[in-house]
Structures are given as structure tokens and as C-alpha cells.
Amino acid sequence: LTNNPGVEVGASTGKLTFWYTGVGYNKIESGDINIKNGENSTISSSQHNLYFTGEPGTYADKYYKFRPAWGTAVATFTTLELETADNQGAYDSKVRLHSAGDSYFAGGRVGIGTTTPSAKLEVKHTANITANQTSYDIGIRSNFIDYTIPVNLIDNGYKISIEARAYSNNNEFAGTLNQSIGVWARAGMFNGASSAVIKEAIAVSAEVLDNVQDARIDDVYGVKIQTNNYNKTTVTNRYDLYAGTVTAKNYFAGRVGIGTTSPQSTLDIATTNQRIQFLTGTCSSEYTMQVGLSDNGINFTNTSEIRGYNFNNANGNLMKITADGKVGIGNPDISHNPTATLDVNGNIRTNEVLINLDNWRDVVFSKEYALMPLNELEQFIKTNGHLPEIPSESEILKNGMSTGAMATLQMGKIEELTLYTIEQQKQIDAQQKQIETLLRELNALKQTINTGKHE
After folding, report:
1. Residue 449, SS3?
2. Residue 278 contacts residue 270 (beta carbons within 8 Å)
């Protein structure tokens, strides 16, 4: 090519024409095309098609550059723009690449790694593994890591690496949308061989870095989920966080607060004036507390064979249940262990008490029972200060009193007293008969004496 304006290459059909003004030149080399023109230059063809084709030969790589003209003015940017035109000569910009300003693609779908994109932007990455290797593949990566803020300066804005929005902001939205999803992430397997293994499948992984010594981050949220409660739209069900897999295990390493931003325990549930905290203390052995429901009611299960239950308030321990089923009530010392099935430190008020006993004292009424004579009973009381078989005062004060055993002993004494009363009644009846006989004899004697006096 010479440096003459209006040089044409090719036939009339599909010809390529270079037009330029000012100082410049066109140059074609093997495997490399450089088109350099002065100002107000245009490149066109009769069919509105422009093709850049590399030179076949020994050059494996081809590249094409678009450079601004150089001269007395300094070039600060380069712009490549693709436009459409109607039959009236009106142009519409569809694609624009700007080296220093805004770039856009206003056409249809954009595919990276695919010639048939199914979305506005689809990035398709296919990795075929043919040997053992360590590979790290990222479909889309947004790096926003090189911003700087000098000391004593404040940026009141925010930095968002990726923002995904899917909400209506148009007043003409009046129909029904099946789903509105801001971010949809999938991981794992959908098709594959039974021998396939994925060590970890993470749909969404969020990490906040705090690796700067002595720096400060006021609030760290690994994931922050908030459904804005404007209270205008009728919301049937509101889920800030929804885990829908029944067999899934949801893991929280730190404290979990429900209704509070400052949980004080592993699980802290709070309202305005009420709070439920799940506390852990020092324990020499591992065990689990389980709460559940069954046909028998609400179940509290302790998997330990040596740990029990403590019920406390601000006054101290109210009730304690030991591992072997003993219940202690009313002892504020949490270290005190009840020694009986029911150990109450205080009064008991009830309408009725039913006591199951292994024996009763009706043996007193058997013919074989030897009732202690009253003179011997009197001597025993004088010597011991209590009734036979009944514990002494010192013994009861020291060891307490068994209600069932004492009721049995007392019933025995009542039955003995009944026998004594019956025996005494027999003696009284005999004595009454003797008195009546003596009175009859006395009256007869008096009558005989009075008759003799009158004779």
C-alpha cells in the first residue's frame, strides 16, 4: 500500500477502502494489522462489515490494537463504540468500551465461555480433569480490595463487592410473580456417577477478615439477613432465616441470640422483660440434656448417670433432683443432696396423705399375742420414760420419725389400749355384779333387823 488517499484493496464486491486525512500511514505486515490514521478518519465497507483476520503462517498468537492518534494533544482515553442505525440515519449505541469512563453492553445476552447465553450475563466454565491435580476454579470473582483511606479521612459511603437485587421498584408492577430471589446459589451434585465424591459442598460461603493487628471493626457479620419490616405490605409468613431440610445439622460455634444482639450464653432468648438462657458450667464429665415431647408428656432427659437437676432462683436452690431420683425441696444450699426419696426442709400442707405399708399391727388382737400386764407396763415407763417399742425422744430428735412406721406402732398401742380397756371393763362388770349382790344382801339384812325391832 502506498501513502495515497483513497487506496482500495479487492474487487467492487466486498472491497475494503481506507480513508484518512492528515498525517498518517497504513501498514500491513505478516500476522499483524495496524491501522493508524490522523484525525477524522473512518473505516468502512460497502456491506457494513469489517473483518480483521490474522496472517496464516508461523505466528501462533494474533492481536489487534486500537490506539488514539498522537500529536500535540495528549490522549487520555480510548473509546470503541458499536452502534445501530435506522433508515433515517439515526444511530443507537449498543456497545461501548471506554478506557477511562463508563463501558456498557446494551444489547441482548452476554456469554463468557459460551456462545448461547441463557441469561443477561452467563459465565460458563468447563474443567475436564484428566489427571490428579490441585485446581482452584472460580466462576465469577469480584475483587474490591485495593481501596485506600488515609488517616483522619472518613468515607461515609460503603463498599459492596457484589450486590444482587430482585425486587419491584416500578409502579406498573400489578401482576403476580412466582418467586423473587436476590441471590441463588447451588453447589453439590445433580447428576454424576455413584463413585463421585465432594469433600465439602458449600452453596454460600461468607468470611469477614480481621487480620490487622490493633485495627478495629465495630460490628462483624459473617452473614446478615434482614427482611425490612416496613409494615405496609401484607406478609403471610416472614422468615429472616429459613433452614428447610429436616435431617440437616445447623452448626453455630459461638453464642446465639434470639431477640437480643448481645447473647450472654450459648443460647439466649430474650423479649422486653423476659429472658431464657442456656448456661453451661464446670463439669468433670461429658453429658447431654435433652428436652422433648412424647405421648407421656414433656420429657427432660439427662444422659449422665451421676448428674441430677437443680432448680434455682435469686434466693438460692429451690429444688434438687439427684441422679438416683431423690428430691430435695427447701434447702438453699445447692451442694446439699437429699437423703430420702422426698426430702423437704419446711412445712408440708395437704388435704390427704396416702401411705403404703408392708405390715399392720392387727396381730395385737390374735390369741397368741401376749399383752403386757399393766404393772409391768408401769414399771417400763418409770424405767425408760416412753412406751415399749416407741422410739425415745432423743432417738426421734436425732434420726427423725417415719410416718408409716410410727402410725403402725401407734395403732398397735391403740389396740393394746383397747384390750386393756376391755379387760378393765370386764373387771368393772364383775365388780358391779358383786356390788349388786352385796347391796341385795345388805338390804335383806336391814329388813330383818327392822322386823326384829318391831317384835
Report:
1. helix
2. no
Please enumerate in sequence order all residues whose Cβ is within 8 A of that of 412, keeping only pairs 6 or more positions apart, or say none: 361, 363, 364, 389
Is 34's pLDDT higher than 50? no
Characterise 400 by phi-psi region: left (phi > 0), alpha (psi -120 to 50), beta (else).
Answer: left
- CA max distance for the chain: 202
Q: Which of 279, 278, 286 is nearest to 303 (CA)?
A: 286
Give the DSSP H or E segment for 329. Answer: strand 327-329
Grid cell for residue 59: 505466528
Contact indicator for 122, 114 with CB cutoff of 8 Å: yes
pLDDT reported for residue 233: 87
- The Cα–Cα gap between 37 and 7 comes to 13
Q: Would you say residue 28 has pLDDT above 50?
A: no
Query: Which of 369, 360, 346, 383 shows the shortest CA–CA distance to 420?
Result: 369
Q: Contact, 45 vs 16, CB < 8 A? A: yes
Which pTM value belongs to this model? 0.56
207's grid cell = 468470611
57 has a pLDDT exceeding 80 = no
SS3 for 205-245, per residue? CCCCCCCCCCCCCCCCCCCCCCCCCCCCCCCCCCCCCCCCC
Q: What is the mean pLDDT of residues 62-87?
A: 71
Q: What is the pLDDT of residue 61?
A: 56
Give the pLDDT confidence score for residue 431 in this predicted structure.
96
Contacts of residue 131, defined as CB under 8 A and 6 or more positions apart, other chains included, come to none
Q: How many residues does the chain have?
A: 455
Provide, for the chain, the percentages of residues in helix, strand and coil under a 3-state DSSP scheme, each rounded to the nearest 5: 15, 20, 65
The predicted-structure confidence for 210-264, as pLDDT tens digits, reads as follows 999 999 999 888 888 888 878 888 888 888 888 889 999 988 888 999 999 899 9
Q: Please give the full DSSP string across 350-418, using - where no structure is assigned.
A: -S------S--SGGGGSTT--PPPHHHHHHHHHHHSS-TTSPPHHHHHHH---HHHHHHHHHHHHHHHH
CA distance 275 to 268: 7
Strands (E), 6-52: 8-9, 16-19, 25-29, 32-36, 42-45
Query: What confidence score (pLDDT) does residue 392 get?
Result: 94
Cell of 348: 408440708
HEC secondary structure over 406-447: HHHHHHHHHHHHHHHHHHHHHHHHHHHHHHHHHHHHHHHHHH
Name the amino acid, one letter, at 447. Q
